[in-house]
Amino acid sequence: MLRQYELVERVLEYDPDADEALLNRAYVYTVQKHGSQKRASGDPYFSHPVEVAGLMTDLQLDQETIMTALLHDTVEDTLATIDDIEANFGPEVARLVDGVTKLSKIEAMPENERAAENLRKFLLAMSEDIRVLLVKLGDRLHNMRTLHFIKKEEKRQRIARETMDIYAPLAERVGMYEYMREMQLLAFEQLEPEAYRTITGRLEQIRMQDGGQVDAIALAIKQALAETGLNVEVSGREKHPYSIWKKMAERHVSFEQVTDIMAFRVITESEADCYAAMGVLHTVWQFIPGRFKDYISTPKNNGYRSLHTSLIYENSMRVEVQIRTREMHQRNEFGLAAHWAYKQGDKPDGAVGWLRDLIEIVDASHDAEELLEHTRLAIYQDRIFAFTPKGALFQLPKGSTPVDFAFAVHTDLGAQTVGAKINGRHMPLRTPLGNGDVVEIIKGSSAAPQLSWLGFVVTGKARAAIRRAVRLKERAEVAEIGKKLFDEIATRVPAKIGKKAIREAVKRLEMEDEEAFMYAIGAAKLEDREVMEALVPGCTSEMEQGEDWARQERAISIRGLTAGVGFKLAECCHPVPGDRIVGLRKAGEGVEVHAIDCFELASGIDADWLDLSWGKASKGAIGKLRATLYDRPGALAEMAGIFGQNMANIRALELSQTEHPFGVYEIDLEVQDLAHLTRILSALRASDAVAQAERI
Predict the structure, then answer these.
(1) What is the β-pairing status of strands 383-387 and 417-422?
(2) Any residues with CB less than 8 A from the CB of 120 and at least 6 apart, and which?
(3) From residue 9, how far is each of 256, 264, 268 by CA, in Å?
């Protein structure tokens, strides 16, 4: 553990103007506050914040960050308060400490909710000052170094998983690769102990048997470059054990089949020398097509710059080579921490694109599970590059679609997306984007995010925005159903209901506003009796409990509502516009629409029944048919031709049974209404290829 004078001397070495007395006071304060507390290792607890402060001095960060590292656990684990920190060390340090501190009031929450709430607070604080993230990463790295002292395996696994899912990717996104690699290695050891032991054991064998092969290859690379006048430094190493395991899992190969286990780094004097060195290496050794990446001309979001290539060395050995300048190397290893110069009084603004996306996700996420899921997606590591038609570059996770791209450009553009062109060609919105694709988004003024998009989008920002939009639309449509039900209820109270009565009812029921009141009615969260009593207190006193007084006088129209949002068409009977329909309403769920003759309605379902009508403009639904075709060439094509002639779209087709000479098909067919479906059935029955056709 660093002693007090050693820590202060470290800071003064790179920042002679630092306040020595204030640093000493912070050290003494944390020692006194943590007192006799012990860590799982048996060490004094204050050794942890002191070691985190030491990590911050390695990054040469300002004195406020060093003091924050020293004090970051005092508010959470001792009797100290944020006000105490501010009184002793000033408002800036207090703000940073508060950003890193976990909220004590959420300790009683379930584990996932507590983790999500901590993450929410941390991300918001990080958006104001990136130093919060740097201290948090140092805190997590030191905790991982001592994780093996925790006795409970379940707790070790939870911390390791959180590190792998959240903190290692965050370190990568700010370019702190040294932190990322060590966190991944320590988490990998806990999460996959057998794989960790196997891979590290094999690497040790290679080290003992290679006879200095790594050094020999590094020397050969340096000599080849020196012969052309390039002054470089070359170093070599085996690849990171977690990186090897990940490659084995992704490619479904054994350790022996991973060919590029060795990696080499070439440090040059200038950017031009990087490209010259690459040219020499590609001339001397064969490079592997598809494995060259230029992160100098197109840096990663975190500022990472380097050339990556893979070569075939002697005996068909594959080696990976990274080429960069010394300045790039410093920035690449320590990222944003190396970039911001606090000594000159510069303050980081935190205005990084991906960080703004994370804050949007915090705002849009509905619950703990969503926040954790979306955040993991937002900091996912494997990226692709895609361009707007005007040449603006966007980095996205692998597997991203035009919808992900649209939301990355702007949330409003994502919400208005109706189509896309990829490299000038119209393509489906679910098409995965490739590196270098030019994406043009086609938007519509009346468009809205679709629930079905959640089936293919991959970015956390897109998923959060889509879910939020769908929730708002669902709330509005359920509230619309609630208004129609309210009109029915209002006719059954002994008074004329106006705006004043509604406002009073909202207050009595402790609702936020009138829309929340209507939503509660539509979602069956309020019984009719409760609504009537809130409107006219005492009006239900003479009614017997359970009395059947809630019959509708007229059907409620579902025109203007969206299937799957305000209501759901039942899959048991597949109603289409024109069918006589009823709705089943369960508390907290949407209205499920059934055809009046549906067998499910006779099964004694415990739900409110609503008399519904389609409305004059209702069009479009999925009808389900069963067609028995003669088993002969061209029969299926003839049936498909009938659908095409009648302007009906096949959504699904399945051969459910074969019994010579017949084949039975079940078809999901997009039709306009009952009349449209009836015409199609008539056409099928008239066809020589069809033995029987019926609706199911």
Answers:
(1) unpaired
(2) 362, 371
(3) 48, 35, 32
**Residue 193: left if φ>0, alpha if ψ -120 to 50, beta else—which one?**
alpha
Q: What letter represents residue 618's amino acid?
A: S
- If you average pLDDT over residues 233-261, what whole number do you get? 79
Domains of the chain: residue spans and CATH: 4-191 (1.10.3210.10), 196-338 (3.30.460.10), 468-535 (no CATH), 558-614 (no CATH), 621-695 (3.30.70.260)
> What CA–CA distances, in Å, run from 248 to 242, 256, 258, 633?
10, 10, 7, 47
- Rounded distance between C-alpha atoms, residue 575 and residue 598, angstroms: 9
Q: Which DSSP string corresponds to 557-583?
A: E-TT--BTTTEEE-TTT---BTB-EEE
CB-count burial class (<10 Å; 0-12, 13-18, 19+) for 4: middle
- Write the pLDDT tens digit of every residue in 606-646: 556 777 777 665 567 888 999 999 988 899 999 999 999 99
User: Cβ contacts of residue 301 below 8 Å, gap of 6+?
Assistant: 173, 352, 353, 354, 383, 395
Ranking 54-63, 107-116, 469-478 by mean pLDDT, the lowest is 107-116
Beta-strand pair 556-557/608-613:
parallel
According to DSSP, the residues that pair with 613 across neighbouring strands are 557
If DSSP codes are grouped into helix, strand and coil, which group holds residue 622?
Answer: strand
Dihedral (CA of 463, 468, 469, 471) sign: positive
Identify the DSSP state of 663. E
Whole-number pLDDT of residue 342: 35
Which residue from 611, 460, 601, 588 is spatially nearest to 521, judged by alpha carbons? Answer: 588
Question: Cα–Cα distance between 372 and 113 in angstroms, integer?
Answer: 9
Given this model, what pLDDT does residue 54 score? Answer: 93
Q: Using an 8 Å Cβ cutoff, are 303 and 354 in contact?
A: no
C-alpha span between 462 and 264 (Å, rounded):
37
Q: Which among 426, 425, 412, 423 is positioned nearest to 462, based on CA atoms?
A: 412
> pLDDT band at 143, cuts 50/70/90?
very high
Query: Which residue numbers are catalytic?
Result: 76-77
Q: What was the pLDDT predicted at 169?
A: 78
Question: What gap in Å lies between CA 600 and CA 135, rounded to an integer?
Answer: 59
What percent of the residues of the chain are helix, what percent strand, and what percent coil, each to the nearest 5?
Answer: 50, 15, 30
Tell me the pLDDT band of 114, cut-offs 50, 70 and 90: low
